[in-house]
Design brief:
By secondary structure, the chain is of the alpha/beta class. The chain has a single domain (about 1-100), classed as Rossmann fold. About 45% of the residues lie in helices and about 20% in strands. It has four helices and five strands. It has helices at about 10-20, 35-40, 55-65, 80-95, and strands spanning about 1-5, 25-30, 45-50, 65-70, 100. The chain has a five-stranded parallel β-sheet, with helices on both faces. The longest helix is centred in the last third of the chain and has 13 residues, at about 80-95. The two termini are about 15 Å apart.
Length: about 100
């Protein structure tokens, strides 16, 4: 199964990515910086450079995937509305249900 995972280099997302990869799933993981993207690639997880603010990217990845797994972390006291709308956009654009991590 082709999966798109947000936060693939984070604590929860990273653990989930490794576990799903070990079970034979193809993982495309959203990361924000190149160093983390390189580490994911070395583990056989295809990095997608971007963030939750990029609605076009999220929509394209959700359409490409068989399933989307998203567990966004709140890293500021007041996350932008665009970030949350991006997560909601994932749910509306994917052909299969979004599975919260």
């Amino acid at each position: 199964m082709q999966l798109f995972l947000t936060g693939a280099s984070g604590f929860i997302g990273g653990s989930l990515a490794h576990s799903l990869k070990a079970r034979g799933h193809a993982i495309r993981g959203l990361v924000r910086d190149r160093a983390k993207a390189e580490r994911l690639a070395a583990l056989g997880i295809e990095p997608v450079l971007g963030d939750l603010e990029d609605r076009a990217l999220l929509t394209a990845e959700a359409r490409r995937a068989d399933a989307v797994i998203t567990r966004p972390a709140v890293t500021t006291r007041r996350p932008s509305r665009r970030s949350w709308r991006g997560c909601v956009a994932l749910a509306g654009r994917c052909s299969t249900p979004v599975v919260p991590a």
